[in-house]
Amino acid sequence: MLAIETEGLSKRYGTRVAVAELGLEIRRGEAFGLLGPNGAGKSTCLKMLLGLARPSAGGGLLLGRPLGDVEARRRVGFLPEHFHFQDWLSGAELLRLHGRLYGISDAVLGERIPELLARVGLEHQGDKPLRAYSKGMQQRVGLAQALLNDPEILFLDEPTSGLDPLGRRLVREVIAEQRARGVTVFLNSHLLGEVEVSCDRVAFVKEGRLLEVHDLRKMNGGALEVRVGIAGGEAVIHKVANEAELPRLLRELIASGLEVSEFTPMRPSLEEVFLSIVGDQN
Amino acid sequence: MGEAARRKLVWLGLAVALAYLALYATAWHLALSNPRNIVNGTQAANRVIEHQAESMFSLLGLYAANLLTAMMAIITSIDALSGEIASGAIQTLAAKPIRRWQILLGKWLGFVLLLTAFQLVLDGGVMAIAWAYSGYIAPHAGFGIALMWGEMVLLLTLTLLWGTRLSTLANGVLSLGLFGVAFLGGWIEQIGALTNHPRAVHAGIVASLIMPSEALWRRAAFEMQSPLMSAMQLGPFTSASVPSIAMVVYAALYTAVALAVALRSFATRDL
Questions:
Q1: Can you name the residues that pair with A189 across neighbouring β-strands?
Q2: How far apart are CA A110 and CA B216, in angstroms?
Q3: CA A171 to CA A167: how far, in whole Å?
Q4: Do A54 and B92 touch (CB under 8 A)?
Q5: Percentage of residues of chain B with pLDDT beyond 70
Q6: Engineered SS bond to A42: which of A188, A223, B61, B208, CB 3.0-4.6 Å?
Q7: For residues A232 and A259, is the Cβ–Cβ distance under 8 A?
Q8: For chain B, what are the domain ranges?
Q9: How far, in whole angstroms, is CA A146 from its chain's centroid?
């Protein structure tokens, strides 16, 4: 069973098209990134998957159940882009409230909440009111909230917005941990570096449309260009069929007596792919 | 419930209620605790007039308390839903495995309980003060308070209904605006009845159909005033045109429909 699938998923607000005929297939256990500029429809897509907004057309399945199904939501976790809450609660109380909404028993919550707070680095701040939390701390408690029910799918909408490098690393680690446990991760982001590091596959979206889907694990399997610098001369670009050919090229260059001062394989970065796909479509 | 209890607003509300009651008790003390002979006549005649004064003062206290409760109901709840939808705080709630109607009904119940407690303190306090000073208890007090409670529930239900679609500001304007329409309509109806202008009476009735809040108070006032006063139409709260029981039933149905529409509106709303 696929974790998430959609067909023709569309959303229109009045005359504005937020999402147009999105078709996705996300396998269980993979980390999937939705990458696109702001306003591309990523958040709207996420809202439709979670039943927060109704599609104007099309539909999909979440863990095999139709979008908007209540029971499917019992098995997913969600961290929205701007995590807002009742700020007079303490961190632990907020987690208890959300835990109860999942139907988790108080006994289980009693153990799980301290663990989660520790995991996100808030073990000593659990009893302080949320209004005293910094933005980074709020985002961390939001992440803890998303993990409360040990979800099968983790939905993250721009999870590192407003986080310092330590916070961003925490998010990356959590994603990696969950993936290793077989959890499906659905990541919305406009930050290339984040998606590049954390995801298996990436879908590029712009203006509500799905442009392409790339498998990041395979992106480096093809032909490469290598920039070779010669001492006292100009750099030359060589081409090789794949990564495995690199050592052979270097041996040949040196054997031919060249003073090789620079040998830089230029792997196509996600940024270039992104710009070529998203930038060109006008 | 726990959420609202934590808010400073509740303690403020309690302080307001107690301040009002203190003011009322003072007024009662000053005006009515030392009965003087108002007319040169028998003690019985004086007693009758005193009794009317007590009745009127009681109603006055309840009228102000009712207005205070109405304002409290509207002001505390206009942001409840509108604010959470606007900030996005509602998203993590709505993404949980609970249904939309459970979220709204939970909020509604929380506010009903809170405002009922407020109303009991306020109205109970007014009646306790009246009884403490002169042993006066308004007739049909139970039914009267029930009608006032109904008005509070109506106002609350409507603000939550508007809250499913409107911003806090728009919600406030609409809720207070409707309350004002009812308020004005009530007085127009009264004056129309007193001066024998049937069209004014009809205008007032139309206002009550649009918003039955004031009609509920006027029925409550009618129930709780002394029969002598209403027969002789003394005092500002006697009703020349009393809302019928049919209007009370209408108000109850109106509230029920408003709640149902609110639940449906929230269920279909994109968040």
A1: A35
A2: 48
A3: 6
A4: no
A5: 88
A6: A188
A7: yes
A8: 64-120+136-268
A9: 14
